[in-house]
Amino acid sequence: METKDVFALLTCVLLIASGGIYGIKFLRKGNFLLGMEWLIVAFSGSNLLIFLLTQSQISYGISFFCDAFSRGFGIPIVTVLGLMAVTHNYKPSKLKDAAIFAITFASTLVMIKSDFMAKPLPYFYVVMWCAYSAYLAYFIARLARAGEHLHALGVTVAAISGLIVACIYDFYPIPGDDTKAIFLSIALVTWSYMMIQLYYAFFALERAKACAR
């Protein structure tokens, strides 16, 4: 096994740990949307790890679906709605939370199974991630206005690196990276950092809002 393959496996473990730990933390804090999305990312990572170790096509299929969900709807829609709890006091009922996941899961299934989406799908992912990045720019501004400059910087790094990964995902393969192990390592580290940073930034902004009242 080459060094780059070992790094790919280790970054899978990092993604699983980040999504699992901080997903549970969000759930305990009462944010079902962010908690479940983080756990879905961890579940995707665990199945990807199984695939890399065993070549299980079942695990690959599960990871592929979860990845498509997170790139198309989980991060751009579910995560934004979850972050809006602190920026817009948006706190839907558990029934609405469940409905959001049901609709986005169904939309993902249609998206990856429909022939008419095959060609535009990579562009759709980038457009959705750009929309998510636009919201993060607003989130960063809120952090800066609240005096949380370090967290604003941290989320800025997450936003820029996440957008770069989203853009090169299907369009700009890394030279010599035939197995995509190098890109995979970069992407999984980026997503892991994003989930951890957003957790701490979310509650930093929440505390700042409470102190300002």
Helix tally equals 7
Number of domains: 1
Beta-strand residue fraction:
under 5%
In total, the number of strands is 0
Give the CA-based shape: globular
- Alpha-carbon Rg, integer: 17 Å
Mean pLDDT across residues: 93
Distance between the termini: 56 Å
Structural class: mainly alpha
Main beta sheet strand tally, sense and closure? none
Question: What is the CATH superfamily label?
Answer: Rhodopsin 7-helix transmembrane proteins
Task: Extract low-pLDDT stretches.
Answer: none
Describe the SSE topology:
Blueprint: H1 3-28, H2 32-54, H3 57-87, H4 94-113, H5 121-145, H6 149-168, H7 181-212
Describe the structure.
The chain crosses the membrane at residues 6-24, 36-54, 60-86, 122-141, 153-175, 181-205. Keywords: Membrane, Transmembrane, Transmembrane helix. This is Transporter. The chain is built from seven helices and no strands. 83% of the residues lie in helices and 0% in strands. The longest helix has 32 residues, at 181-212. It starts with a helix and ends with a helix. By secondary structure, the chain is mainly α. The protein has one domain: Rhodopsin 7-helix transmembrane proteins (Rhopdopsin 7-helix transmembrane proteins). The mean pLDDT is 93.
